[in-house]
Amino acid sequence: MEARRAVRVRRPPLTHADGHEPARHAGHADILREQIDGSAGRFRDRDNLPEVDGDRWVAYLGRVQAAADAYR
What we know:
single chain; elongated; mainly alpha; 46% helix; 2 helices
């Protein structure tokens, strides 16, 4: 019969959690809020979003999509 070796944990498992985790989930909360009440940004009356026209966003989306497609 084979002897079992003891397994020792050298550090608590939660030490892998980093400080950026809440920021990642905050983005998910923003998406849910936009779907629920239709508003975007930090406040209803003051959205704190950059003021750009639609053409600029379309160009930005094209650049992001091209960068993503390079990794397909």
